[in-house]
Structures are given as structure tokens and as C-alpha cells.
Write a structure and sequence with these properties.
This protein is an all-alpha fold. The protein contains six helices and no strands. It starts with a helix and ends in an 8-residue tail after the last helix.
């Protein structure tokens, strides 16, 4: 793999890490909100109207970024026991199907959530229910973090492709077709 590609892939990983570290502290915020709700409800018999709507938005942001981070650390599940025993042609087929499905899904998510976020912002959409907090900031973050997930996924698939090419090159002689 060329140095330019390595630099770009490293930059994608660094951006994901840079975004993920502060977002990981949302877990502490969610725990704090939940604690306030539980104490208010069961100790003082005064439940809040804001705890669960706030937690849902915090959790939504957390999950969007956690997917990118997990992918950058190769934390998503793949059945190695089966995958490692597959012939090279099936590994390539799996790689192609995986990247196609991933780009299709995430590309659609970025596209559709983009216009939903803009519409939400233009109408200054509020959360339905008693506690009507603004929903548009969250909806504007969905395409941003979905795009980060998409780029991180492409970087991971690119590395997998390079790994498969090296694996094929080591198993074939010079001039032998890879697939």
C-alpha cells in the first residue's frame, strides 16, 4: 500500500478517535440523568419529565459515534472460524458483498438523514411530548456521524482488500491471477 493511502487511512482513524473520545463521556451524562430520575422518582416521589427524552438523544449521538469507533478498532463481529477457512475466491466475494451493502446502506443513511436534518432545522422541530426540547440539533448530527461511519468503513474495507491481495500474492506465483 502506498504512503499516500496509509496517510489517508491513518487520518480517517485519527478523526474517528478524536471525535469518539469526547463523545464517550456521554455515558457519564446518561448515568447522571438516569440517577437523577431514579432518585427523584423513588426517593422524593417526584419523577422528571425531561430525563428519558434527554437520555434518548444522548444515547442516539453515542451510538452513531460508537459504530465508527468500533469499526476503526475492528470490533464488529465476524465469524473468524468460518471466514478464515473460506477459499480466497469466497473471501473476495464476501468482501465485495460486504462493501457493497455497507456503502449502499450508509450512503442512503447519509443522503436521507441529510435532507431530514435540513427540514428539521428549517422548521425548528421539537420533540413530541410534554418536554418539548429541540430535535433538530440531533437530526443535523445524524448525517455528520453517519458520514464518519461511512468513511471509516471504507477505510476498514480498503485495509481488508490490501490484506486479501497480500494473502493472494503470497499463495500464488508471480503473474498468477489473484481471483
Amino acid at each position: 500500500m502506498g504512503e499516500d493511502k496509509k496517510t489517508i487511512l491513518s487520518m480517517v482513524d485519527n478523526i474517528t478517535l478524536w471525535v469518539s473520545k469526547p463523545v464517550s463521556f456521554l455515558v457519564c451524562a446518561m448515568m447522571g440523568v438516569t440517577t437523577v430520575e431514579v432518585v427523584g422518582r423513588y426517593v422524593f416521589n417526584r419523577p422528571t419529565i425531561w430525563a428519558w427524552p434527554v437520555n434518548r438523544q444522548l444515547f442516539g449521538i453515542f451510538i452513531l459515534v460508537a459504530g465508527s469507533y468500533s469499526m476503526s478498532r475492528r470490533g464488529h463481529i465476524r465469524i473468524e472460524l468460518i471466514y478464515d477457512r473460506l477459499p480466497k475466491a469466497l473471501k473476495w466475494c464476501g468482501w465485495f458483498l460486504g462493501i457493497s451493502a455497507f456503502i449502499g446502506f450508509m450512503g442512503t443513511l447519509v443522503w436521507q438523514s441529510g435532507w431530514m436534518g435540513i427540514n428539521s432545522f428549517m422548521s425548528r422541530e421539537l420533540l413530541a411530548g410534554v418536554f418539548r426540547i429541540p430535535l433538530y440539533p440531533f437530526k443535523l448530527l445524524i448525517p455528520v456521524f453517519a458520514f464518519l461511519f461511512l468513511v471509516q468503513g471504507i477505510a476498514v474495507f480498503w485495509r481488508e482488500r490490501e490484506h486479501l491481495k497480500k494473502e493472494d500474492a503470497s499463495n500464488h506465483g508471480p503473474g498468477t491471477p489473484l481471483v
